[in-house]
Amino acid sequence: QSVLTQPPSVSGAPGQRVTISCTGSSSNIGAGYDVHWYQQLPGTAPKLLIYGNNNRPSGVPDRFSGSKSGTSASLAITGLQAEDEADYHCQSYDNSLGGSRVFGGGTKLTVL
Amino acid sequence: QVQLVQSGAEVKKPGASVKVSCKASGYTFSNFAMHWVRQAPGQGLEWMGWINGGRTKYSQKFQGRVTISSDTSASTAYIEVSSVTYEDTAVYFCARDSPGLFYFTYWGQGTVLTVSS
Asked: Tell me: the pLDDT tens digits for A60-81?
């Protein structure tokens, strides 16, 4: 059971917009810690997609955006493309039990 | 460029120990923490712990059964899991963050551990 909660799956047609939620608690997201997102293609390592809630590393298209409010965060993908089909993971820091990194359970995005 | 290259796949019997390595290049190894994250089949990512300048910190779940170490001269980090069970079957990743930043910029390619009798 993951500390952060994500929907197991989302789907959308090419060109559409989808969002993926990430819900935490008062010891992680709600405590003010940033949320980061990773994209994981099948059989590969995760790749940093969004850092610091809403910042994109160099090379990540602006179709990807992040937001955070209260104890939750969201990843939005606009103009869906077939190559966006992947697993998406949110991650934050948790100050309980001496501090640790925490992840969501991951969300499988299917492009219809 | 930063690269993290992990050791190859492992197959272990229940109760055995396994040690996975992660060799870093392209940066000064001692200046950055190295984390270990695992992913069981069909599951999400799970943070296991980190090592930084000889200091270690573990997820409470793995405290006592996992040991993270490093050889600075070889720019290599290690994770050893003892008394493995079928539930330890997973892909193990090393990942590097940056000082003061709590996200992982660089990842190893992953090492598959299969626990099978």
From this structure: 999 999 999 999 999 999 999 9
